Amino acid sequence: MAKKSMIERQKKRERMVAKYASKRAALTDVINDQSKPMEERFKATLKLAELPRNSSATRLNNRCELTGRPRAYYRKLKLSRIMLRELGSFGQIPGMVKSSW
């Protein structure tokens, strides 16, 4: 089980990303538009830099839904490898059987 503080920090980042997504998208559109004057694009760059760091989507980590583990994450199931194996062993994931011979 991951530390509660790390899980809560991740939730806070997710909320912040959602809050600033439209503002970030608008600023990046201005920055990438070559037809705009250089001064306007530079001002947009400065405004983008003033936004909180945690509002960037690249700062999000994938975490297991059950344990909060950040590593060995299966995107399709939103689980870590440990929980995937455990749930598979108990037969709680359809079509998955732990191999034995």
From TrEMBL:
UniProt keyword annotations, A-Z: Ribonucleoprotein, Ribosomal protein, RNA-binding, rRNA-binding
Pfam families, per the entry: Ribosomal_S14
GO MF term (any one): structural constituent of ribosome
Record flagged with keyword RNA-binding: yes
Keyword Metal-binding in annotation: no
SUPFAM superfamilies: Glucocorticoid receptor-like (DNA-binding domain)
Gene Ontology cellular component list: cytoplasm; small ribosomal subunit
Gene Ontology annotations of biological process type: translation
Family statement drawn from the similarity comment of this UniProt entry: Belongs to the universal ribosomal protein uS14 family.
Record HAMAP family: Ribosomal_uS14_1
Free-text function comment from the UniProt entry: Binds 16S rRNA, required for the assembly of 30S particles and may also be responsible for determining the conformation of the 16S rRNA at the A site.
NCBIfam families per record: PRK08881.1 (NF006477)
Assembly and binders: Part of the 30S ribosomal subunit. Contacts proteins S3 and S10.
Protein name in the entry: Small ribosomal subunit protein uS14
UniProt organism field: Paracoccus contaminans
Gene name for this UniProt entry: rpsN
